[in-house]
Write a structure and sequence with these properties.
Aminopeptidase; 7 strands; alpha+beta; 4-stranded antiparallel β-sheet
Amino acid sequence: MELVRLRLDHQTALREFLDDFARAGEPEMPAFLVDRNLPHARIVELLDAWSRGEQLEEDWVPSTTWFLAETGRLLGVANLRHRLTPSLRRFGGHVGYSIRPSERGNGYATLLLEEVKRRAQDMGLSRLLVTCAPTNEASARVIAKCGGRYEDVSFYAPAGHSVCRYWISLE
């Protein structure tokens, strides 16, 4: 199992990954921020560009996206935002992650977040803000296992809902 950046040869694996979410009634995920209807080559191009701080949407920050991969399958995705804006500080945090629905409950989310922590530290970050919905007990357990310290619940009007905010020290 390894953390990889999306490549052109992941086209079928990405389609299967995204289809798993769609079958589970989860058309969106917090870590895959690209329009899934774009051609695969454009998705790869955008994710690479965003990691360099290029081709960003308005009010977006540079971010790097990795996939947890095993034997040609994509099991999970994580997006690490390189810095926080005021809105990310209140709602989105540094890290978004998702495990494909058919693979949940296998410890992959903990493995994924631990690896993202290492990469964030390598990028020079000293702590990470990670958020989850107040009803997402599984994600709250993962964040706590990875060293997350609960800070508070923050309501974000543009999204119309609240998130629990946790800080993870990388030092």
